[in-house]
Amino acid sequence: MLYITEDIHSFDLLRAIDALPPQRRLKAMAFRHETDRRACMAAYMLLSRALYQEYGIDEPVELGLHEGGKPFIVGREDIHFNLSHCRSAVACAVDGNRVGVDIETIRAFNENLARRVLGEREYLDVMAAQRQDIAFIRYWTKKESYLKMTGEGIRRDLRSIPLEEARFDTVESDAGGYVCTVCADLSSGSRPLAVNRISLL
User: Fold this and answer.
1) Do 88 and 176 meet the contact criterion of CB atoms below 8 Å apart?
2) Rounded to whole angstroms, what are the CA distances from 134 to 67, 171, 178?
3) CA–CA distance from 53 to each of 1, 2, 7, 57, 94 (Å)?
4) What are the distances in angstroms from CA 158 to CA 117, 120, 163?
5) What are the residue ranges in the chain where pLDDT is below 50?
6) CA distance 147 to 85
7) Are the CB atoms for 162 and 119 separated by under 8 Å?
8) Distance in Å from the first CA to the final CA of the chain
C-alpha cells in the first residue's frame, strides 16, 4: 500500500511538533531548515496514518535502524515500511513483505548523469522517450527504491542493479511535479498497487 501527501508545506507545524513522540520530535528539530523539519514530521505522520489504516495501530511506534540504515518498527517484524520525500510530497509504503519507495522531483534531463547510472538498454530507452526527464526519473526511482528495499543504500554501481529481480509500481504526478516508485519482492505477488492520497491538514 502506498500513501502520499502533498501537504508538506501547509500543515500546522506547531501542532505537529506537539503530536510527535519524543524520539521523532528530537530528530525533526535537529534539522536546521524548516523544509527538512516538515519532511521529517510529515513522513512520521503519514506512517502513523498508514499503520492505523492497515493494522489498527493507534499508539506511537518506536523506530529502529538496521545496519544498512533502513528503518523498522521495534517489536513488529511482521510490518515492513519505507519512507521518502521530495520538494513537494512525502511517500510511505507499507507491506507485509520487505518494500522500498522513492519519490523524486521531476528535473531537467541530464544526459551525463544518465550515462553514469543507467545500463545500456535503459539509456537507449530514455534517449528514445518523448519525455526524457520523466523516463529517466522512472529508472532512477526504480533503482533507489530497489536499494531501499534491500537495505543496501546507494553503495553499488547503479548500472548493475537487477531490476528484473523485483516488482515495481510507479505513480506520476504532473501537477505535483514528481515520480514515485514502490519496489517489492517478486515473492509478494502481483496484486495491483493501491494508492492513498492523504491530507495532513
Assistant:
1) yes
2) 32, 11, 9
3) 10, 12, 19, 8, 10
4) 5, 12, 10
5) none
6) 16
7) no
8) 21
* Cβ neighbours around 8 below 10 Å, total: 20
CA separation for the pair 91, 6 (Å, rounded): 9
CB burial class (10 A; 0-12, 13-18, 19+) of residue 102? Answer: buried
> Which residues, 6+ apart, have CB-to-CB distance to 9 below 8 Å?
35, 38, 88
Give residues with Cβ within 8 angstroms of 25, minimum separation 6: 17
Q: How far apart are CA 201 and CA 28, in angstroms?
A: 19
Per-residue pLDDT at 58:
93
Amino acid 190: pLDDT: 62
pLDDT given for residue 3 in this prediction = 97
At residue 26's C-alpha, the angle toward residues 105 and 149, to 5°, is 45
Displacement of CA 22 from its chain's centroid (Å): 23
| Contact indicator for 160, 119 with CB cutoff of 8 Å | yes
Tell me the β-bridge partners of 196. 3
In the structure grid, which three cell numbers stand for residue 56, read together?
A: 489498527
Which are the contacts of 19, defined by CB distance < 8 A and separation ≥ 6?
Answer: 45
Q: Which three cell numbers stand for residue 1?
A: 500500500
Q: Which residue bears the cell 534491500?
A: 150
